[in-house]
Design goal:
The strands form two sheets. Strands 1, 2, 3, 4, 5, 8, 9, 10, 11 and 12 form a ten-stranded mixed β-sheet that branches. A two-stranded antiparallel sheet has the order 6-7. It has a single domain, classed as Aldolase class I (TIM Barrel, Alpha-Beta Barrel). The chain is globular and about 70 Å long. The longest helix has 17 residues. The chain has twelve helices and twelve strands. The chain is of the alpha/beta class. The structure holds ligand PBG. Ligand PBG binds next to helix 7.
């Protein structure tokens, strides 16, 4: 076996899996204001960016040959109806218009995350209904109303597509949302807008740093009544089946490294484009080890990304996208 491992030229010739900047997507967190670049404590090198700064960042991403951007927003105000998610002047809507105006960003696919958690005052991904006697945020007596949430998600998707999103990506995990979003897009003459569904999204501790970045931590309870239990792989396949039947064009698997087996199972079962999201906690834990000198940054980063591609992902959403593109030269 060692004959083909002798030189880098030989290793390169027989390499089975490759990384390419064009198959990497970089997340951006848009915030109100001007000239703002606020670093996220638990995610070195990742920032909350005002729209003007986000355009500069996007131009850099385009110059590095990245495939696209995934956009999240931190609205100026939050409320129980997540009004900021579908406002004409919403923060991501403004960002999309600015990105579309920059010719330097033409090579990037803009993907808009569709979820309510960044826009609700309570931080849940849907409409909260109180079932108890102890007030509206009684942590023991509430549920997330699936069907009441669907029209708001559909409205958000339409608003983002109208503002210029090339793809909408629902991450809320309400049942039936792909169907509701597809119908609303079609009715709004947006039949060409694809849906990238976070079909297989687990209730994960690895989203912790993101909730600091997007200011979206639930104020009470957790997301386990709508995101999947981490122990279930068959259920993940059912989620994907349903989203495909409802009209999803692509699916996103999430998180990535702790769920490589789920990515592999989906790859073997489905022929549509499959993305994987190397989430905030995966990035933060690697950075924590880099900061201590415990892991070699570049090698560990690239190895983590190759593992996700080898598991079967066609493209990867990762906070390492820019660093990886630079490393790949
Ligand atoms: C919104 C959303 C989350 C992430 C992506 N979209 C947070 C969550 O579900 O709590 C997490 C991404 C990351 O951790 O990098 N619902």
């Amino acid at each position: 076996m060692r004959r083909l491992r002798r030189t880098e030229a030989l290793r390169s010739l027989v390499r089975e899996t490759r990384l390419h900047p064009g198959a990497l997507v970089y997340p951006l967190f848009l915030c109100p204001g001007e000239g703002i670049r606020k670093e996220i404590g638990s995610m070195p090198g990742v920032f909350n960016l005002s729209v003007d700064e986000a355009v500069k960042e996007a131009e850099e991403c385009a110059a590095l040959g990245l495939g696209g951007l995934l956009l999240f927003g931190l609205p100026a105000e939050k409320d129980v109806f997540a009004t900021g998610a579908y406002a004409e002047q919403g923060i991501v809507q403004q960002g999309l218009r600015a990105l579309k105006a920059s010719r330097a960003c033409d090579s990037l696919v803009t993907i808009a995350d569709v979820c309510l958690c960044e826009y609700t005052s309570h931080g849940h991904c849907g409409i909260v209904v109180n079932d108890g006697a102890r007030g509206p945020q009684d942590p023991d007596h509430y549920h997330i109303d699936n069907d009441a949430t669907l029209p708001l998600l559909a409205r958000t998707a339409v608003s983002l597509a109208q503002a210029g999103a090339d793809i909408v990506a629902p991450s809320d995990m309400m049942d039936g949302r792909v169907e509701a979003i597809r119908a609303a897009l079609d009715a709004a003459a947006l039949a060409d807008t694809p849906i990238l569904s976070y079909a297989s999204k687990f209730a994960s501790a690895f989203y912790g740093p993101f909730r600091e970045a997007a200011d979206s931590a639930p104020q009470f309870g957790d997301r386990r009544s709508y995101q999947m239990d981490g122990a279930n792989i068959r259920e993940a396949m059912r989620e994907i089946d349903l989203d495909l039947a409802e009209g999803a064009d692509m699916v996103l698997m999430k998180p990535a490294m702790p769920y490589l087996d789920v990515i592999r199972a989906a790859r073997e079962r489905y022929d549509l484009p499959l993305g994987a999201y190397q989430v905030s906690g995966e990035y933060s834990m690697l950075h924590a080890a880099f900061a201590r000198g415990w892991l070699e940054p570049e090698r560990a980063m690239l190895e983590s990304l190759v593992s996700i591609r080898r598991a079967g992902a066609d493209f990867i959403v990762t906070y390492f996208a820019k660093d990886a593109a630079r490393a790949l030269g």
